[in-house]
Fold this sequence. Notes:
Elements: E1 4-10, E2 13-21, E3 26-28, E4 36-43, E5 45-49, E6 54-58, E7 61-65, E8 71-73, H1 76-80, E9 85-92, H2 94-101, E10 116-120, H3 123-137, H4 144-160, H5 167-174, H6 182-188, H7 196-202, H8 207-218, H9 222-240, H10 245-251, H11 257-268, H12 272-280
Antiparallel strand pairs: 1-2, 2-9, 3-8, 4-7, 4-9, 5-6, 5-8, 7-10
Amino acid sequence: MVPEHKVLKYKGQVVFEKITTPYIPRVPKLFQNNEACFMFINKGEFSVRTPDQFISLKKGKGLLAKCFDYFFETNQAQRASSDHIEILAVLLYPSMVEELFQFDLSLSELTVNFNVKQIKIDSLLNNYKESINLLLDNPELADEAIIKTKLIEFILLIGKTQNAPSLLDFLSAMFRTNSTEFKTTVNNNLYSSLSIDEFAKLCGMSVSSFKRKFNETFQESPKKYFGKMKLQKASKMLATGNLRISEIAYDCGYESISTFNRSFKTHFGQSPSEYRLSQTA
């Protein structure tokens, strides 16, 4: 299918967008102006990988996210569920929120214990989503006054789904990102198929800074450490479980069974199937 991207702007900034795209194994979320966002999943399934969370989402769910680096990704089962993904996003910018509500966001110091959060779409949010779908499909109906009204409506609706003391507190917290320690980010994503470049992006670093920090923290290069830890996990799974070798390879972060077989035999001197037999004999 041909990807589609529809947007509505308020004072020159994109505030509503609908993205329809075929499945992509992994793609980074790109931010520009410290915006928070909310995504309605209209079609398909995918997951979100952050420094400290991995959330699977499907049609009918929503995602509330602060502005920070994370990835959208899909596995084979998710790609089998539909031939494409459709997301409707609402983007919120600090200066715009302050203008719409006459707030000074610096007056609140509230923090919340998440950077991304899955949200249940109730009837009010679902009706709201359909009204934005209508405007995106018929942009001639959406003048600036209507867009402003719909932005205010959304903020009031989503604010009621949270347990913040006030709307000001909720909005202020959405523009304050929680940091994740470097070692925690690495360990939380150790058995993913992230490349070194992708790991660096997830940590908010350049590749050279990531490698330097990694060596300081783990006393090994990323390539050597990741390879060792994945093979250790794979060997334990082969010795103690009945999963298929292809499933073990995937669970340990290998993108293909051939790469897993080759790496395993180089390290252990046996193929995965030979190793399994030797452990159960």
